[in-house]
Amino acid sequence: MSYLSGQPMYCYTLAMELAREHQVTLVSCFSGEISDIGRGIMRENLMKCGVVCFDFSEYNGGDYDIAFLSERISEQVIPKIFCRKIVNIVHSEYACETPISQSKIYRYVAVRPAIKDHLISEHAIVPDKINIIYNGVDRNRFDPKKRKSRDRTHRQIVIPCLMDKIRRKFLNYAISQASKHLRINIYGIHRNARIGTWKKYLPRFLYKMFPLRWGMGKYVQIFDPVWNIEDVLASADEVWGILLGRVNLEANSMVIPSRIFDPVTLKNELFLLNDAEFDKRHNIKNVAQKLLNL
Fold this sequence. Notes:
The protein has 294 residues and is α/β, with parallel strands linked by helices. The protein folds into two domains: 6-139 and 283-292, Glycogen Phosphorylase B (Rossmann fold), CATH 3.40.50; 144-280, Rossmann fold (3-Layer(aba) Sandwich), CATH 3.40.50. It is built from nine helices and twelve strands. A six-stranded mixed β-sheet has the order 9-8-7-10-11-12, with helices on both faces. The relative contact order is 0.13.
């Protein structure tokens, strides 16, 4: 997982918004093997806004009105806190997001309807205990006024993502579509996804011997993660991603159409909500209030 990916950015954006009017503590993996640029920037920005930050290894507990827990790793804080309401936010149907099964969980939040269905069918959670509250976006950061004019003959597709096994089929499809008239720019951390026109067929030990950018073709570019992703999106014609993720919402906030792919079937649909509907459902100010009202 990257600090610049969906779930960490969700927690960061929510904490920044809540800190405007509330005392907020954020517990995360601020140490360990993950070291992309987001970790330091996030912690510094959070602390500037008054958020108290702890690594899981240094957290000793506290007394809170409400706790929002994401991913199973957060389960370890439950014995350390006194809290009136503990809410488990579930961000996907994948194993890393398996819901916390404890009697102390007051409510579950699914960030899209399909996740609620998954919690009911696969984890036998009572429907009345689940709320659908979509991901929230900082609309001041992802502002349509930041979009840039595009004087060119080709279309520019931007794909911000973790390059991992889950996205392998999707990324190889995107690479195969690249042409003189359709340029593909991928931003993210690589997790041995075996992407590329020929590298996906190599044995693992050979694959690691060649630079990641080899075998992509001249119309595909791969970049390291960037913090100011809004500056990258600003010149995109479309943004691509799997399922309904944060990249789609950040693009929509800037009035940029995005394409949502199923990572298995590669079926896809264009996504662009009108501004009023998007603001009501995804503005972090509205999302934060819905969470506080649980």
